[in-house]
Specification:
The protein is an alpha/beta fold. The chain has three domains: 8-123, P-loop containing nucleotide triphosphate hydrolases (Rossmann fold), CATH 3.40.50; 127-196, Helicase, Ruva Protein, domain 3 (Orthogonal Bundle), CATH 1.10.8; 198-333, Zinc Finger, Delta Prime, domain 3 (Up-down Bundle), CATH 1.20.272.10. It has helices at residues 16-33, 49-57, 78-89, 108-116, 131-143, 150-160, 164-177, 185-192, 200-208, 212-225, 228-250, 258-265, 272-280, 286-303, 315-330; strands at 8-12, 38-43, 66-71, 95-101, 120-123. Helix 3 links the parallel strand 3 and strand 4. Helix 9 (200-208) packs across helix 11 (228-250) and helix 11 runs parallel beside helix 15. The longest helix is centred in the C-terminal third of the chain and has 23 residues, at 228-250.
């Protein structure tokens, strides 16, 4: 008999990384109680899923434990629904049931029956971009009993992107490998330098924060990791987008709330402090900022084949032009 653990677990929501984590946690708990337990995975939309559930839950000669993982419960037909109801109404002591459902109203009656049977519900709702993801990262570090700065969270998010599985793995790596307390932005940049894919927006953030060495390093990394012809236009577009947003933030009246700035700049509230920090690097250097506008316009034309006939650049020339653009824009003298 399996005791001291959830007999039924429902992973509810469409975030794949959280769903996988819930399934693994439920399976690990079952195996901690019975190391010999077997795991059987059944997709609800498979032909014969109802029969497979009944077969997996049937008594066996040695009474071995089994974890039945039934995925995509929203796709359950009437036969499978009946099989699940039979199982939760008279669940054998050696059977642990793990169900996944992406959320929504489809299959609600079966969901209600599972909840009514006492299922432990794991919240696997999709984590929204921006503030919600940063909060997720903060909780992950806390779970590893590590402190982390707000800037470090932003740098990690920019480096990895929205993939929660990769973000959670990155937090685990940083928590295990870094002794810095708290973990700061410089430590994250150094750790993932040359490893994570770099987007144009990460390069743009480095440029508008006037981190010349970081911007040049990320630009070269992007060139190596991507098709050269795509990097130029994408990078210039990201720089231009960042500049437009930066100017909007700089034009806000003193004392404006973060909510007002976010609305005016059309950015999520968590991004406001980053932009305000960037603006502080430029507020006393308006002439160079104006020169950056002109340089970006020229670069945009160069990356797309040249403004005039026979002024197009080959890939190596484009890389050089981008490096010069980044170096001159971030310069302080």
């Amino acid at each position: 008999m399996l005791t001291g653990m959830a007999r039924i677990t429902l992973a509810l929501g469409g975030e794949a990384a959280l769903t996988e984590r819930a399934v693994l946690a439920a399976t690990a708990a079952a195996r901690a109680a019975d190391p010999s337990i077997q795991r059987i995975t059944i997709a609800a939309n498979d032909d014969g899923a109802a029969g497979a559930v009944r077969e997996a839950a049937a008594p066996n000669l040695f009474g071995d434990g089994v974890v039945i993982v039934l995925t995509g419960l929203d796709a359950a037909d009437e036969q499978l629904g009946a099989a699940v109801r039979e199982l939760i109404a008279d669940q054998p002591d050696n059977v642990t049931l793990v169900l996944t459902h992406p959320g929504g109203m489809k299959g609600k009656a079966l969901l209600d029956a599972v909840r009514g049977a006492g299922a432990q519900v794991a919240d696997c709702q999709v984590v929204k971009r921006g503030k919600a993801t940063l909060e997720f990262l903060s909780r992950e570090f806390a779970a590893h009993k590590r402190k982390v700065t707000t800037d470090a969270l932003t740098v990690l998010y920019d480096a990895i992107g929205q993939d929660l599985g990769l973000l959670a793995a990155a937090v685990s790596q940083l928590s295990s490998d870094l002794e810095t307390d708290p973990i700061d932005a410089d430590a994250v940049r150094e750790y993932f330098g040359g490893v994570a894919d770099v987007s144009g927006f990460a390069i743009a953030d480095a440029v508008w924060e006037r981190r010349s060495a970081d911007a040049l390093r990320m630009l070269r990394q992007a060139m190596l990791a991507s098709e050269g012809g795509r990097v130029g236009p994408a990078t210039v577009a990201s720089l231009a987008s960042g500049l437009r947003t930066l100017v909007r933030v700089g034009g806000m009246p003193p004392g404006a709330s973060e909510a007002d700035v976010a609305r005016e700049a059309a950015v999520p509230p968590w991004k406001v402090r980053v932009l305000q920090r960037q603006w502080s690097r430029w507020s006393g250097d308006q002439r160079r900022l104006a020169a950056a506008v002109v340089a970006l316009a020229d670069a945009d034309g160069a990356m797309k084949g040249g403004v005039r006939e026979r002024t197009g650049l080959d890939p190596e020339q484009k890389l050089l032009a981008l490096e010069i653009l980044v170096a001159t824009t971030t310069a302080r003298a």
